Amino acid sequence: MRTAVGLGVLGLGAVALAFWGLMSAPPSDAPAPDPMAGLLAQEAPGRPGLAPGWSLDLPADHGAHPDAPSELWHLSAHLEGPDGVPLGVQFNLARLALAAPADPGATPDWMARDLFRGHVILADPARGVMAEERLARAMAGVAGADGDGLRLDGWSLRFAPEAWVLEAGTGDTQIALTLTPARPALAADAEGAPFHGYAFTRMTAQGHLRNGGAELPVRGTAWFEHAWGALPIPGGGAAVVSDRLQLQLDDGTDLSLVRSRRADGGGRATLEGFAIDAAGDVRAIDPETAQVAVTQHWDGAGRRWPVGWSVTLDGLALEVTPVIDAQAHDFMAPLWSGLVRAEGRRDGQPVQGHATLTLDAEGLE
Amino acid sequence: MTRSTRLMGMAALVLAGGVALWFLWPAPQPPAPQAGQNRSDTGPVAAAEQRPGDPQAGRDALLNAPYVSCGIPREVWTRLAPDTDPDNLLPGRTGRNADLPYFLTSHVTETGVEVVANNCLTCHAGHISGELVVGLGNPFVDFTQDARDLVTQSGRFVRGADHVAAWQHWADRIEGIAPYIRTDTVGMNPATNLSWALMAHRDPATMEWSPDPLLDPPPETPVPLRTPPWWWMGKKNAMFYTTIGRGDHARYMLFASLLCADSVEELHEIDAYAADIRAFLESIEPPAFPWEVDTALAAEGEALFNTNCASCHGTYGDDPGYPNRVIALDRIGTDPMYAQTMTDGSLDRFYDWVDRSSHGGTVRAAPAEGYIAPPLDGIWAAAPFLHNGSVPSLEALLNPRLRPRYWMHADPPDYDPEAMGWRFEELDAGKDAAPDRATQARIHDTTRPGYANTGHGYGEALSADARRAILEYLKTL
Q1: B302 and B277, same structural domain?
Q2: B462 and B386 housed in the same domain
């Protein structure tokens, strides 16, 4: 059974953060046209956009949707080792259409028709934060996405029927995870939305972290989402940027919160999101009653990052704090993204969990 | 919510529709305020001379001219809403407007950025009996969302220095007015409160925008108001329910200018065709009742109408007349909140703003403590009724026992030609019992302040047959 949510609940909010930029932001006073503006033009060559009447079809929808000008996949895992030490893992892949797709049956050519950009982040309190960003044009065996899996060089996420398998890493550190959905897919199929997508907000995850010769068993939960269409792509000087919290609580609650703010510092931040309770019921958060207050900053990588949040909604009060302060990444679109812990109360009862918090660098001091 | 309604709602938040903005033109010497000049008596409203205009040119300007000059970059709109519902295309739209929905107008800024902004038709057009009717007060316009959410949603797609700057110009205005234009019921129009909020942010002499209010802003909650049809304007000697709009009606309609224009010069450009727009509005014929009418019964109803209703609402047919009468609150008995807040002194600083603006004297804000009895041309299409839209049908208006205390429109909207109003579902409880915010926004709760469905009980003394005959006659107007 699927549950549909509307634009702005899963949709815009989720992708805004998951789809990290492919280009650096131009200087704000640059007289030259923004390169992203042309690259992200609505009329991507030979990419007609979304057809109406879509409904989720898995595993086919795991793969790329060539009609869509942009697309992203994002996996976050909140794990722990045998000693209870937390470990955060992220694998992110984005596709950007550059030219019309090749005609079906045409002889393969070398033309760059789609660009893939990805990153892997491993947040390990014992070993520190390891992150790597990669870029490649679509090419069989090198970079691509289909119903069988995602690939970018040696990184892969395979959608095998019995369990998904993630293999990724950086340097001497490699993660291998087996992932099984613990909750049905949540489809973002609102009619008229500028993109489609879905999320598995809770998967069970287990595997190994290999570092040199050492191998550490890990287990926990993961969150996967995939969206395609006309996506707001961070980087490139967007007028509004978004910060994202993907939270999994021990009581079975999954919570997605997007806090959006103007890059020029003006106006008022807005909140969007959804919560799925232990029974699987989905509801949009009420921006009238939900509150996020920044409770902690980390000064580093040239910015003042709002890394600690106090979250209040519907009987739930949580303090979100970083497991590691220094989780800023100097990707093409700089960001702070990493593992955070959440502790608090729901209706008076203690509750805790882990989350991935992602902060856009734009608009920060 | 259907897609078109949602997009309409989003668009509606770009800028509230084109009603009620009194606005003054620069004059060399503003007249000194006079005692009592910001109030009107109940009773007859005197005529005021109007500038002549060309209705055809006015229609073209209304549908195509950039009287709202700030908005969302078109590229972003297209991204959010790539397809225009054919039902929302309007003949007579030209150039860049030809393929936009009727409620949006395109404008290329001085820096070359094409933006789209809501035009007057956002609130002043709507679908009824399968037709898109210009001049119909949109009964389903949705201002119940926080306008700042649209700032965020659109800004995510804006990039490039010029586009960002154009978006910021619009976004700053929306941030300034958003707290004051959020209604709690779909179909209610916050234009009056929007007017006050804009005045609070603008210097009346220069029109310069101030990020911080220069006057105490209005209360955050708009008084519930239903948008009346434009085709009544030609008969009314003053604008709006309390007849606050006195003087040059064309200049009252420059709503959009107060949102976006930052100079007197830009307003002058718009004023050059404002009289044409007014002339077009006054030329609009109401849509004919599209279902069958029992002409014999209607003839009976006409006699009853002329005896019981015409002294306030006028006569129609071969001997037309309209008395332009404001009925005092204690006599009409409809919800008093609007007229009271307009006349209790709490908004006088805005009437003074009008006087201090550089053309104070050509228009004047002078409400009466009552409501004007409207003309009834095309009344069948003007549902729901009373100034606060609290009564869903004419049948219920004429028979107060049928007025629902709690109700919501059928979804999708469906017109009931027998009851002469929108089909509705009567509810057992009001907004407080709604399961969620979206449902709450759809509920007309007549126990809430400003939403009372009392008053205008004149039909109560009539027999059921007499009411039926009058209803039949009203179909012919």
Answers
A1: no
A2: yes
What is the dihedral angle through the alpha carbons of B2, B387, B345, B200, rounded to the nearest 10 degrees? Answer: 30
The residue that leads in pLDDT, B14 or B242, is B242
Q: How far B74 CA lies from chain A's nearest CA (Å)?
A: 11
Which of A268-277, A320-329, B76-85, B94-103 is predicted least confidently?
B76-85
Q: How many domains does chain B have?
A: 2
Quick one: B110 and B142 in the same domain? yes
The one-letter amino acid code at B259 reads: L
Which residue(s) pair with A188 in the sheet?
Answer: A5, A197
Asked if pLDDT for residue B355 goes beyond 70, the answer is: yes
**B281–A contact, CB cutoff 8 A:** no
Is some CB atom of chain A closer than 8 A to the CB atom of B268? no
Alpha helices of B66-160 — where are they, by DSSP H?
A: 74-80, 121-124, 147-155
Does residue B24 surpass a pLDDT of 80? no
Nearest of A81, A95, A90 to residue A123 by alpha carbon: A90
**Closest CB from B78, B149, B437 relative to A42:** B78
Distance CA(B281)–CA(B233), nearest Å, equals 7
Distance from CA of B377 to the nearest CA of A (A): 37
Residue A40 has pLDDT above 60, yes or no: no
Domain span holding position A139? 3-23+58-100+111-229+238-360
Q: Residue B78: what pLDDT?
A: 87
Q: Between chains, do B155 and A230 touch, taking CB under 8 Å as contact?
A: no
- Write down the mean pLDDT value for chain B: 90
For residues B59 and B121, membership in a common domain is answered with yes
Smallest Cα distance from A227 to chain B, Å: 15
* Domain that includes residue B315, residue range: 295-325+368-474
Kindly list the residues from chain B whose CB atom is less than 8 angstroms away from the CB atom of residue A36: 159-160
| Residue contacts between A and B (CB atoms, under 8 Å) | 99
The length of chain A, given as a count of residues = 365
d(CA A299, CA B43): 68
Report the residue of chain A nearest B6, measured CA to CA. A192
Whether residues B203 and B301 fall in one domain: no
Task: Determine what percent of chain A falls in helix, strand and coil, rounding each to the nearest 5.
Answer: 5, 55, 40
Helix axes B464-474, B295-308, angle to 10 degrees: 100
pLDDT tier at A236, thresholds 50, 70, 90: low
- Closest residue in B to A42 (Cα–Cα): B79
ipTM value, please give it: 0.78
Are the Cβ atoms of B156 and A287 closer than 8 angstroms? no
Span B374-399, pLDDT tens digits: 999 999 999 999 999 999 999 999 99
Distance CA B27, CA B361 (A): 8
Coil vs helix vs strand at A162: coil
What is d(CA B93, CA B96) in angstroms, rounded to the nearest whole number? 8
pLDDT higher than threshold 70 for residue B287: yes
Distance, C-alpha A217 to centroid of its chain: 24
Residue A286's CATH number: 2.40.370.10
Interface of A with B (CB under 8 A): 8, 12, 16, 28-30, 33-34, 36-37, 40-42, 49-50, 191-192, 194, 230, 232, 236-242, 260, 262-264, 266-268, 270, 272, 286-288
Are residues B299 and B278 located together in one domain of the fold?
A: no
* Residue A165: partners with Cβ closer than 8 Å, 6 or more residues away: A156, A157, A158, A176, A177, A178, A179
